[in-house]
Specification:
The protein is α/β, with parallel strands linked by helices. It is built from 18 helices and 15 strands. Strand 8, helix 11 and strand 9 form a beta-alpha-beta unit. It is globular, with a radius of gyration of 22 Å. It starts with 11 loop residues before the first helix and ends in a 6-residue tail after the last helix. The protein binds adenine. Adenine binds next to helix 3.
Length: 418
């Protein structure tokens, strides 16, 4: 097996600069790295990752390596690999497997290359690594200490596995850290999804009708940032409480069947399948832009759009034009895959520092608890989450207050009232 599979090793020098740039914004993760160098929590352990191969992920990978781990990584999305970063990692001797634009066959070949290293710890973003191990390599499971999962979609899949008794090792839902889903999903997706749309299209947001499909943490971030750029934001939602939140946040909430007639830009962030589908395309405005910011490329029913289109052409990088029989043109960004990583660089480094502090500490937790945890989905304690927030505040140079002894006593008592 080849040690690495990257697009072009000659890109390594630019990749190294990009990794350094990311490091300069990720000092909380670097503080953890410094401790790992001394404590070597991963000494003798093999760590297999399926994450977006970005400059921020490289900082995580090098942190795990600094902690004594032997690391192999595959991409968790065919369009998200930053080829220069992959080359830089390969040059450092990391077993890295990923190329921007890889085929689905190559995608699974690369995941299998990671599995072939027989990892003790797995790190997933979307659950494809865990799922592939359980489906096709169950013999490896007894030597696996545990895994971590980065994203909402992956955690949903893991909980479904646990529910039917199929999940055979413990997996930490890093996504469920407050310092992950309330930061990465909200501020991260909010900014990076728009970054992707702007790089793919360079359209003006001000005055446009932007339909945000789904009002979870990602949808909330995308809606806020779109409003910040002057768009009229419409929200569609299936959950009553979230729909209410959107209304109270000042957005118009309406069914997708109505929204399709009004939107100039559609951004799907639901984690669900075919939220924009066959019956919707014909009703859209000429020139409408459709993008997905959810983990998988299932949210926009592209197969139906292709079947309806009489012509299809690549307009510019990350933007395809579909002309319907009526002559109406619809534009799809990033082939319906995660627009922030397909057309831009994903979340900013500052945001990924939060998420990857969570990954690093979750892996350390698993290594320390080796043999003591049962199969299932685990959420880290509030103390770990608080420690990440503390590290990040320190990195930002922000000082917060602490409780006085009197306040602590007041909060833990019940006697004092009116
Ligand atoms: N997910 C979203 N943005 C990312 C990034 N910059 N690196 C890795 N994973 C991501």
């Amino acid at each position: 097996m080849q040690q690495y599979q990257v697009k072009d090793i000659a890109l390594a020098e630019q990749g190294r600069k990009n990794i350094e740039w990311a490091e300069s914004r990720m000092s909380a993760l670097l503080a953890i790295r410094e401790r790992f160098v001394k404590e070597q929590p991963f000494k003798g352990l093999r760590i297999g990752l399926a994450l977006h191969i970005t400059k921020e992920t490289a900082v995580l990978v090098e942190t795990l390596k600094a902690g004594g781990g032997s690391v192999a990584i595959a991409s968790c999305n065919p369009l998200s690999t930053q080829d220069d970063v992959a080359a830089a990692l390969a040059k450092e001797g990391i077993a890295v497997h990923g190329k921007k634009g890889e085929s689905v066959e190559e995608y699974y070949e690369y995941i299998r290359a990671v599995i072939a290293t027989n990892p003790h710890l797995t790190v997933d973003d979307g659950c494809d690594l865990v799922s592939e191990i359980h489906k096709n390599h169950p013999k490896l499971i007894p030597s696996i200490i545990g895994g971590t999962e980065e994203t909402t979609t992956g955690v949903i899949r893991l909980r479904a596995m646990a529910e039917e008794g199929s999940l055979k090792y413990p997996v930490v839902a890093v996504n469920d850290n407050r310092t992950k889903h309330l930061v990465d999903n909200y501020y991260g997706t909010g900014q990076s999804a728009l970054d992707g749309i702007l790089r793919a299209t360079n359209i003006l947001f001000a005055g446009k009708s932007v339909v945000v499909v789904g009002y979870g943490e990602c949808g909330k971030g995308v809606a806020q940032r779109s409003r910040g750029l002057g768009a009229n934001v419409l929200v569609t939602e299936i959950d009553a409480f979230r729909a209410l939140q959107a209304v109270l946040d000042g957005f118009r909430v309406l069914p997708i069947a109505d929204a399709v007639k009004e939107g100039d830009v559609f951004i799907t962030v639901t984690g669900n399948k075919h939220v924009i589908r066959k019956e919707h395309f014909g009703q859209m405005r000429d020139g409408a832009v459709l993008v997905n910011a959810g983990h998988f490329d299932v949210e926009i029913d592209l197969a139906s759009l292709k079947s309806l289109a009489k012509k299809q052409r690549q307009m510019r990088p990350s933007l395809e034009e579909y002309t319907l029989a009526s002559g109406k043109r619809l534009y799809v960004g990033g082939e319906g895959r995660l627009i922030n990583l397909a057309a831009a660089e994903g979340h900013p480094s500052e945001v990924m520092s939060f998420s990857f502090c969570g990954q690093a500490l979750a892996l350390e937790f698993l290594a320390k608890q080796r043999g003591k945890l049962s199969p299932g989905v685990i959420v880290l304690s509030q103390e770990v989450d608080d420690a990440i927030a503390e590290l990040q505040l320190r990195a930002l140079g922000v000082r917060k207050d602490t409780l006085t002894a009197e306040q602590r006593k007041y909060l833990s008592g019940w006697q004092e009232g009116t």
